[in-house]
Specification:
- Helices cover 31% and strands 13% of the residues.
- With 168 residues, the protein is of the alpha/beta class.
- It starts with 15 loop residues before the first strand and ends in a 6-residue tail after the last helix.
- The protein has six helices and five strands.
Amino acid sequence: MQLEPIPDHLQNDLKILFVGFNPSIRSSETGFHYANPNNRFWKILYEAGLTPRKYRPDENSELLVLGFGLTNIVARPTKEAAEISKEEYAEGAKLLEQKIRQFRPKAVCFVGKGVYQQFSKRKSVPWGVQKEPVIPGIVEYVAPSSSGLVRIKLADIVEIYSGLNDYK
């Protein structure tokens, strides 16, 4: 079975562009971002005060109304991010930079430290706003992955995401 990439949700004048690693198998099957039931993305956005309610994956395009976009550094769906090759990350980082430069969101939230490490080519990155953005004039914000596999307390993850309220 050929897994299909899922569509980006992009437009001009975005407040925040959320960038994940790549689509999960469940996201590929449904066509929706963060569709795996173990993924806490939608809960995190709501609990951090970014959305007025907890959205469902099938409502992902409605985030555009709030000024939030969705994309991934790699389009190919996989069971886990470890399956992504260095070449795919390198190509994905180039494409992502083009999207960011084209759509010029106020802030880009990298959903996972590893996503930003692949994009920026930096080994050590803190949570939150990056002092030296790759793309000048764009706020680059690093937050934990929303995957259920992440071993950070949900309350701590929500606290990091709540810093994005400055950009909405």
